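Hi L.,

You mentioned the student needs an example of a multi-chain input paired with its predicted structure. This one should do, with 226 residues in total across all chains.
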Amino acid sequence: KQEVTQIPAALSVPEGENLVLNCSFTDSAIYNLQWFRQDPGKGLTSLLLIQSSQREQTSGRLNASLDKSSGRSTLYIAASQPGDSATYLCAVLFSGNTPLVFGKGTRLSVIA
Amino acid sequence: DVKVTQSSRYLVKRTGEKVFLECVQDMDHENMFWYRQDPGLGLRLIYFSYDVKMKEKGDIPEGYSVSREKKERFSLILESASTNQTSMYLCASSPTSLEDNEQFFGPGTRLTVL
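Structure written out for the whole complex:
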């Protein structure tokens, strides 16, 4: 079964720290991987989309990497701020005609 | 910017009522999805559609149906609402192209069934 796992489920860091969120997936045959942010009670906001042919994508203080062979992706957040506090979800589009498979997310708290 | 809108942010219904949740996207996306999200269970796919008048069951279709009469609109129907359908419902859309099929979500509908 194709699965996406995010560990840890929750993370708390002091403001200003650089941090890494992890995502692992069970099958290296993927089309792409997408990172989302979700604030409490809101919908998901797309942060970054990495195609299978790419190794990383950057947007502002965010950098996402992809290592298909090991089934891993990381989301790096530089100089974290309290406004970064949210749940971050990873989702994988596996090869084959199937919808995105989501991890359960990492709940990030950045403490001022 | 891609915009996915949902008809209501909050909805309160009675057990046994028929409930319609509407989703509209303005980017001409072929694919549309309905999820529910519950604490500890994550996002679960209810139904999805890859084209007008097409629908596919997701992981938890029981108690739900969908309608896609127009490309931009995807409706989720609870035929007879039950308390265990109290949840956050999220709609999403994406293009078919594998080179650029970023998925976008609506703001969600918090449904409470009493």
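You could point out the following to them. Chain B touches chain A at residues 4, 33, 42-43, 45, 48, 58, 88, 90, 92, 98-99, 101-108, 110 (CB under 8 Å). The mean pLDDT of chain B is 95.

Best wishes,
N.
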